[in-house]
Amino acid sequence: MERKFSIEELRRRLELALRPAEPPSLDEVLAAVERNGRLHGPVDRVFPAWVTYSEYAVQKIVETFQLAEEERKRLFDFRDAMKQLLLEAQRQAKAKLTAIYKAVVDGTYRMEGNKLYAPDGTWMYVREGFTQHIIIHGVSASARFPNLLKMPNEKLELFQIGWRASDEGEMGGRPVMETTQPWQVFAWISLRYGELHIHVDSVTLTRKGVSVEVAIKARGWMQRWSKAEAIDLVANYFKHGGWTPLLTMWLGDGKARRGEVLSGEYKLVIAAKEPWRLGLVVGAEKALVASGKEAFERLREAAGAYGELLDLLRAHKWIEIKLATNDAFRAAYKLKARKRGNRRA
DNA sequence: CTGGGCGGTACAATCCTCCG
DNA sequence: CGGAGGATTGTACCGCCCAG
Questions:
Q1: Nearest to residue A76, comparing CAs of A143, A24, A150, A147?
Q2: Nearest nucleotide from residue A258 CA, by C1' atom
Q3: What are the φ and ψ backbone dihedral angles of A45, each rounded to 5 degrees?
Q4: Which nucleotide minimizes the distance between its C1' and the CA of A271?
Q5: Is A287 helix (H, G, I), strand (E, B) or coil?
Q6: How far, in Å, CA of A73 to CA of A49, rounded?
Q7: Residue A219 pLDDT more than 90?
Q8: DSSP states of A199-268 as a string?
Q9: A100 FRET partner, CA 20 to 30 A, in A24, A268, A278, A284?
Q10: Per residue in A2-26, is it b (16+ CB within 10 Å) or e — as a string?
C-alpha cells in the first residue's frame, strides 16, 4: 500500500520537530549512539546532540591518540567547523519548519508537484511514498582531518575497501559518505583523512523527530573501486582468510542483531545484492558470512588500532562485536539493561 | 575541475499483523 | 503469545545539471 500524504500527520511531525527542548546531556547522546547509532528528536535537541557528540569525539581522540601539535590543531578546527555548520543548519531548519508549520495551521499552504509551499516560498518535499524532508542550503565548509591511525597503506586500504563495499559512495570521482549517524562520520574520515568538504544536506521529519543528514567528500582521495569490485575484493580476501575488509563492510551493511548476540546466537549476516558472492544465502539479499563466537573474535582482532577508535566512538555495531567477545563487557551491559528495566517498571 | 542544487530510488531498519 | 514475514518508513547511495 502506498503511503498517502496526510496533512494531519505532517502537522503532528512538525509539532514534534518544533517542540521546545533542552539540549541532551552527553550521557543521553552516547546512549542513543550506543543503541542504534542515530539521533532523533526535536530540532533543538538533535542539532545540539550532534555538536555534543562531535566535541566529545574530538576530545576523546586527543586523549587517546599520540598526535603532533599540528594534528591536534586540525582536529579542533574540524570540530569548530562541524559546530558552526550544525548551528547554522539548526537555524535554517527551524526557520523553514516554522514557516511550513504556520502555513499548515493557517491553511495557507499550497501543493505543487512533490512540494508543499508556505506563502513566503519556503518548501518541503512531501511526495507520496517518500520521506518528508527539507533541503538545507549553503551550509558547507572545507576542513582537514588528521591521519590518526597511521597504519601501513596496505592495511588502510583493506579498511577502505570494506566501507566502499557497503556505505561509501562516489561523487565526482571522490569517495563520499552521507549519513545520519555521527559515529560513522568519525569512523569513516579517520580512514579518508586529509582535505574534506562537509555539507549539511537535509533534515528529515521522522516519527520520532527530525534526523540530520551530513555529507562528506574526501577530496584527497580518488574513488578506485566500483561498488561491485569492492564487494568482490572483500569476498576474495575473506576466502583467503582475510577479515579486515569484512569488518568495515559489516560496520556498513552488516545486520545488527543485538538480541541474538545477547542470547548466545552468533551470526555474521551482511546485506548484498548478490549474497552468494559472500557466503551462504539466508533470505533475499542477505548472506550468512560466518557464524560462531570465533567469527566475532576474528573481526575484533582485525580491527587492531581502529578498534580503539570504534571503542571511544561508542559505535553501536562495534558494541555488538564486543558483546560477543568480551564476557565482562557483556555482563556489565546486561546489568545496566536490567537496572533500566527495573526503573521503568 | 569543484561546489552546490535538484531530484530519484533501492533497500535496510523497524513496525506490525497474523498464524501457529 | 512469540516470532516469521510482510508492510511501512527512513536512509544511503546515486546521477545530472549548472555556475564559477
A1: A143
A2: B13
A3: -110, -40
A4: B12
A5: strand
A6: 23
A7: no
A8: EEEEEEEETTEEEEEEEEEETT------HHHHHHHHHHHHHTT--HHHHHHHHHHBPP-HHHHHTT--EE
A9: A24
A10: eeebeeeebeebbebbbeebeebee
In this predicted structure, what is the pLDDT of residue A67? 94
Closest CA to A166 of A230, A235, A233: A230
Query: What does the block give as the cell for A139?
Result: 551550509
Taking the C1' atom of every nucleotide in all shown strands and the CA of A2, the nearest one is C8
Nucleotides of C under 7 A from a protein CB: 7-16
CA distance A267 to A259: 11
pLDDT level of residue A66 (50, 70, 90 thresholds): very high
The x, y and z cell numbers of residue A290, run together, are 560466518
Pairwise CA distance, residues A306 & A301, whole Å: 10
> Whole-prediction pTM value?
0.88
Distance A1 CA to B17 C1' (A): 14
The 10s digit of each residue's pLDDT in A95-127 is 888 888 888 888 888 877 677 888 887 888 876
The grid coordinates listed for A294 are: 570465533
Residue A103 carries which side chain, given as an amino acid letter? Answer: A
φ and ψ of A325, to 5 deg: -120, -5
Show the cell assigned to A172: 565526482
How distant is C1' of C19 from CA of A64, in Å?
44
What is the average per-residue pLDDT within A214-235? 82
Return the closest-CA partner of residue A218 out of A185, A174, A248.
Answer: A174
Confidence at residue A138, expressed as pLDDT on a 0 to 100 scale: 79
Which residue in the block uniquely carries the three cell numbers 569548530?
A: A80
Whole-number Å distance between alpha carbons of A304 and A339: 32
Distance CA A14, CA A104 (A): 9
